[in-house]
Amino acid sequence: MKKIIISCAVMGAMALPAMAQSGTNSPYSQFGLGLLSDQSQGANRGMGGVGIALRNGNRVNSLNPASYSAVDSLSMVFDASISGQITNFKEGGRKLNANNANLEYAVAAFRLAPHFGASVGLLPFSNIGYNYSSTYAINDVTGSGVANTTTIETHNGTGGLHQAYLGLGWCVFKQLSIGANFSYLWGSYDKNVTAQSSDAYVSTVTKIYSASVSSYKLDFGLQWEQALPNNNFVTLGATAGLGHKLGADPICVIANTDTQLGTSSIDTLTAKDALELPMSIGAGLSWRHANKYVIAVDYTLQKWGKIGMPVSGGSNGSYQYAVKDGLLLDRHKIAVGGEWTPNAYSRKYYNRMNYRLGASLATPYCKVNGVDGPKEYSVSAGLGLPITNNYNNRSVINISGQWARQSLPGMITENTFRLNIGINFNERWFAKWKFN
């Protein structure tokens, strides 16, 4: 237990500073709570992010806490990864590339008692990071037929939400396991919009949107694993997350400056208890043959459509900041993936490697300028590289590559290539050594 406590403390101290950094440059991250993060672990990432129906005692699978009951009784499993990505932004004839790198997650799993496993970890929930500007002309204001007022809008934002969780999984009887993740959800964001208009004089309106979140998150899961003839196994999985208010009071600060009149004003508005988590449900199905083949499919639904978001409105010193409905959408995601291990016990290294493929499709959960946001299409591939030495043959380096695309007609198209490298340590901490 001392080893577990010390290791979890070290894991948290290393992970927290890195997770605080933004991992995106997407303008689409300014909507809602930001871009929702992939919360799967390294092995799952090469399989399209599936995991609801996966059970493997040598891996951590936070997507379904019921899977913790499968953890080997002698092992302590650590899993952490970093990622780097290159994104190409395209709008009209303009193109721009941006690079990001950050720590993705740090998790661990271990057995507490027979048929009872636990997991702790740090996961990302959402990401906000963007910086862009646009210039446009306001309609003729003098009657001359010429649009002689130009406005430059600058948008930038940073932040995101993170979660630290403790999960428990219990094998009720041979086929059925249940589990729960109890998470502390925290983070903040700052989103700034500055509009500067000029003709004979300059007027500037700056809106600063900010919020700080400190709340909880509860997720539940179950798995039913059925053994079939010829060393085949079918697993059904289901998950559910509770929706609730986050207890946050977002703030909007509006600063208005008029150089012609030499006046300025600042309004600070608050939207009470205006942020909320949606209810979510998920279902998964997997087929496994011995230690050789795994095929899985997941479906998840997040009920964002019933949740409002705070928006500002008004002019001439009369502003409001309040929750408005109809800005968010229910989010559907389907993922499919598979893994192949030619021969887990072969002396040939390439036969012991894990080969993975996957794909996913996710609908948007936010509207963008009054229309449904972009869908995300992605494909992924990955490798599991065994680490073998005199006392450990179950640790693995997981490498995966993912291509993802988001686009809207007449708006920005994003193509992202993401490389994820993770290390899954599987140590026999709880084995009792015998000396002769």
Describe the 3D structure.
By secondary structure, the protein is mainly β. The chain is 6% helix and 60% strand. The protein contains three helices and 23 strands. The chain has helices at 2-19, 42-45, 349-352, and strands at 35-36, 76-91, 94-113, 116-138, 149-171, 176-198, 202-228, 232-241, 244-245, 251-258, 263-270, 276-277, 280-289, 293-302, 309-315, 318-324, 331-340, 354-362, 367-368, 371-372, 376-387, 395-406, 413-427. A 14-stranded antiparallel barrel has the order 2-3-4-5-6-7-8-13-14-17-18-21-22-23. Strands 9-12 form a two-stranded antiparallel ribbon. Strands 15-16 form a two-stranded antiparallel sheet. It is elongated, with a radius of gyration of 25 Å. It starts with a helix and ends in a 9-residue tail after the last strand. Residues 4-9 have low confidence and may be disordered.
